[in-house]
Specification:
This protein is α/β, with parallel strands linked by helices and 267 residues long. It folds into 2 domains: 39-128, Zincin-like (2-Layer Sandwich), CATH 3.30.2010; 131-267, no CATH class. It has helices at 2-22, 47-65, 106-109, 113-127, 133-142, 148-160, 167-170, 181-197, 199-211, 216-224, 229-241, 252-266; strands at residues 24-25, 30-31, 40-41, 74-78, 88-93, 96-102. The protein is globular, with a radius of gyration of 24 Å.
Length: 267
């Protein structure tokens, strides 16, 4: 009798596992439809959770920056601790994103690595190309909402230690520096400029910078009123010294209102 009970229990447990694995709909008596992402494809035990998380990230990015005119689905892999010191990566093969990988668990990736890498993929489709690495990494870092306080602390520590390089030494470099200042300063500059004009305005600035501007100073002048990188750097470093509160920045609208008023006075 004990043996039969054990066998019965095992059979029931096996049936439950099969129903869970296949997404069984108990009320309808049939397998329920698996969630299908609009933007990515994931496989494995956590595939549905990964796809839901990626969809939520893309929807947030669309609300913040605008909707890409073109999108092709790509693979997403979450492989905890498989990358060593590398947190994740985004792989491209123009004109498409091929793969996004996070080497942290899904829980650790939320608001961190997965948001970072999905932002790279999102802007690749929003702009139709890659773009300057300082701005690109700065945008991706700004999507790491669970890391923002830590990143701002890091900015202050590295600035206070005299480690910062001039922006002119990082913009246009398009290769990673050994001290990872591209990440730290890129995050902070984007943080500052988003504070000045908002996310959608910044996305339009990056699009103009990537496709239409003569150079970075042309784009800065058109969108933020800075004639040179040095002028931007002056205001940005003041932002760092003042505590890095976006609410403390002088809004772009004020700049344009002042400019129009001055033009009206002159005319």
């Amino acid at each position: 009798m004990k043996l039969k009970t054990t066998r019965l229990a095992r059979a029931v447990a096996a049936s439950i596992l099969i129903m869970v694995a296949t997404g069984w709909n108990a009320e309808a008596g049939e397998p329920s439809a698996r969630y299908r992402s609009r933007y990515v494809t994931a496989t494995g035990l956590n595939a549905e959770a990964i796809e839901r998380e990626c969809d939520a990230i893309v929807e947030r990015l669309c609300a913040r920056y605008g909707t890409p005119a073109r999108w092709r689905t790509f693979r997403v892999r979450v492989e905890p601790r498989a990358g060593g010191a590398i947190a994740g990566y985004t792989l491209y093969s123009e004109p498409n994103v091929v793969e996004v990988v996070s080497f942290r668990s899904l829980e650790e990736s939320r608001g961190s690595v997965l948001d970072h890498e999905m932002t790279h993929a999102f802007f690749f489709y929003l702009l139709g190309s890659n773009f300057d690495l300082l701005v690109n990494e700065g945008l991706a870092q700004n999507s790491e909402y669970r890391e923002r306080a830590r990143l701002r602390d890091q900015v202050w520590r590295r600035y206070s230690a005299g480690e910062f390089l001039p922006l002119s030494a990082l913009y246009g470099r398009n290769e990673y520096d050994g001290a990872a200042l591209l990440y730290t300063e890129g995050f902070s500059v984007v943080d500052f400029l988003v504070g000045r004009g908002g996310s959608r305005w910044f996305a339009e600035f990056v699009a103009y910078l990537t496709h239409d501007a003569r150079d970075v100073e042309d784009a800065l002048s058109a969108f933020y009123g800075y004639a040179t990188l040095d002028e931007l750097e002056r205001d940005w470093l003041e932002y760092v010294r003042a505590g890095q509160a976006r609410s403390s920045t002088r809004r772009v609208a004020l700049f344009y209102n002042e400019t129009q008023s001055q033009k009206g006075t002159q005319e």
